[in-house]
Amino acid sequence: MTTRIEKRFAALKAEGRAALVTFMMAGDPDSDTSLAIAKALPKAGADLIELGMPFTDPMADGPAIQAAGHRALKAGQRMTKMLAMVREFRKTDDLTPIVLMGYYNPIYIYGVDKFLADAKAAGVDGLIIVDLPPEEDEELCLPALKAGLNFIRLATPTTDDKRLPKVLSNTSGFVYYVSITGITGAAIPDTSKVTAAVERIKRHTGLPVAVGFGVKDAASARAIARPSRRPAPVTRATRPASSISRRAGRSAGSAR
Fold this sequence. Notes:
Elements: H1 4-15, E1 20-25, H2 31-43, E2 48-52, H3 63-74, H4 79-90, E3 98-102, H5 104-110, H6 112-122, E4 126-129, H7 141-146, E5 150-151, E6 154-155, H8 164-168, E7 175-178, H9 191-202, E8 209-212, H10 218-224, E9 242-247, E10 250-255
Parallel strand pairs: 1-2, 1-10, 2-3, 3-4, 4-5, 6-7, 7-8, 8-10
Antiparallel strand pairs: 9-10
């Protein structure tokens, strides 16, 4: 069965335009405001929404996203509330893909089987879990795929050609390329190096490749997903940081 994520990227490829993928923290600054923001994002041009799962120890996040997560937790955000937010969002939008992004611990505490069933029922389309390597696929990745959710893996500047096939195994929806070494928003990526890395990844997979962790604003998103002599790029962006994706000569970018 084709997922919302796959349908959206296929449509963007047909349109020959950049995809805007936005990141926001669930429950920041509170549940009602967070839901209102999520509902407004597609109207503002978002093609896909990454919904952050607040966690007390976000090892890969920079100060902005850490603060957003802490505000959400302080306001009482929990996994049940986040899934309720997705269910409410789906009452008025059945087209925009939603990807939950975060860490494994809250899912483990919730219970993997229960989480996957509840997430699928709520209308979640995919997962980005930054602290689960492919060696742990049986823990969550394979059950998620079986449940009908895309599992989006991260590749980094240190992922060499020997490691890359392992990273790409069981990846679906798109690949998330971490454009810098370090936490989110810590630096501006070198556009030429990002372009080379994306091209290298594309030689190993036909999936879209999203670039993140260093796309801090519209200018940096345009720099990575810029038009060229190849087919028009696809752009992807987030709140409050950034990322970018490419497929078959088209790039897609996201701010995280």
